[in-house]
Amino acid sequence: MGATMRAQNPDNVQPSDRLLLRVGLLSLGVNVVLIALNAVLAWLSGSLALGAEMAHNSVDLLASVGVVLGLRIARRQSSAFPYGLYKVENIVALVIALLIFVTAYEIAQSALFSEPSPVMVDGWIVLGTVIALALPVGFSHYEMRIGRAANAPSLIADAVEFRAHALSSGAVLLGLAGQGVGWALDRWAALFIVAFILMAGWELLSNAMRALLDASLDDQTLQRIRKILAQEPLVAEVAELMGRNAGRFRFVQAILILRTRDLSRGDALRARLSALIRQTVPHVERVALQLRPQGAHNPKVAFAVDQGGQHLAECLCQAPQFVLFQRLDDHGSWRESERLQNPFLEQESGRGIALGRWLVALGADQVVTPVGLEGKGVGYVLAHADVSIVRGEPGADVENLLANMRQGLDDGLGKAL
């Protein structure tokens, strides 16, 4: 993951590590250009706001260096850090947020307490300021798109910073326009910049702290993962589900209660569910699944019955209805728990698989069928969910079948008639 782009799910295509590093290096270059441009404009015009922009760019250059370093080392592992250095990107985002607050303080101090100076405004100054506005607008859009696609907090933080630059450059442009008509707006423009910088800094700080403090994945993502796990026929219950962010990656862990006491298929089940989650949910780096057998419970038996509901039907998939019996206690008491119409009786294709999934969802531990299910979709689904399949004579009385089965059911499921 990460070093390649996934093709299994169109919504889960992620940028490569090499592309992320290239974007980080481009951020360095853009900041160097903005520093040089704003320095020249501030020197030519004497504008306090343009000087503030140059100072802001200088701090951001250091932050961009941190972004590049964070992207390079985030995937490294060592004996001291066996789980990787994924949170380095969150630390970089936190540092950027703190630098933003320092920059805001320095700009505000200069705007409020420095001596006023004349500002020269001409066409070249205005053109340069427009370029200083357009460059971060274009690059921030590109960097934000890549950062969100990769869920990279350092790139997202850097893109937010460039957007703050665009807004503050717009304020500078308004200040210069005011100077051109004789309005002293330079200080107010600088303070306007401070307000935008503080808002951007607070957003980055809060997001970085959430990740560093192992805040949970959002509810929508957790529900999406829970649905994937619950759809597995062998899973009786998702007992516990947790997830967290670390850098641009997500980590998921869950406790699953299985419909079987036989955990020999556990490794294959873990691999299948982990692969499915990583293919479906973006940015998942690792899935840890703990499997537990289903505890003692009252078993449930499903009979495929005819229209009268008293005798075994001729065919499982074409049975008009199903009767479910459940054991009440350990003393051999049973009762009819449900009598349901076959919802797939009129379905032309995929009826067997749909019926099998329905019986599994009803909690059937054993299904009594008049015909063998070898090689059929319904048989595959039931066997995959560890549901026992028992053959019975078509037309046999259901009560008599249950009476003959009780001893075997009380001793343990899976015994045939």
TrEMBL record:
Family annotation (InterPro entries): Cation_efflux (IPR002524), Cation_efflux_CTD (IPR027470), Cation_efflux_CTD_sf (IPR036837), Cation_efflux_TM (IPR058533), Cation_efflux_TMD_sf (IPR027469), CDF_Transporter (IPR050291), DiNase_FeMo-co_biosyn_sf (IPR036105)
Q: Name one GO cellular component term.
A: plasma membrane
One Gene Ontology molecular-function label:
cadmium ion transmembrane transporter activity
Cation efflux protein cytoplasmic domain span: 217-293
Annotated Cation efflux protein transmembrane domain residues: 25-213
Keyword terms of this UniProt record: Membrane, Transmembrane, Transmembrane helix, Transport
Q: Which GO terms describe its biological process?
A: intracellular zinc ion homeostasis
Localization annotation: Membrane
Q: Where would you find the membrane-spanning parts of this chain? A: 20-43, 55-74, 86-104, 124-142, 188-205
Q: How does it sit in the membrane?
A: Multi-pass membrane protein
Task: Please give the SUPFAM superfamilies that the UniProt record associates with this protein.
Answer: Cation efflux protein cytoplasmic domain-like, Cation efflux protein transmembrane domain-like, Nitrogenase accessory factor-like
Question: From what superkingdom does this record's organism come?
Answer: Bacteria
What the record says about family reads:
Belongs to the cation diffusion facilitator (CDF) transporter (TC 2.A.4) family.
Q: What is this protein called?
A: Putative Cation diffusion facilitator family transporter
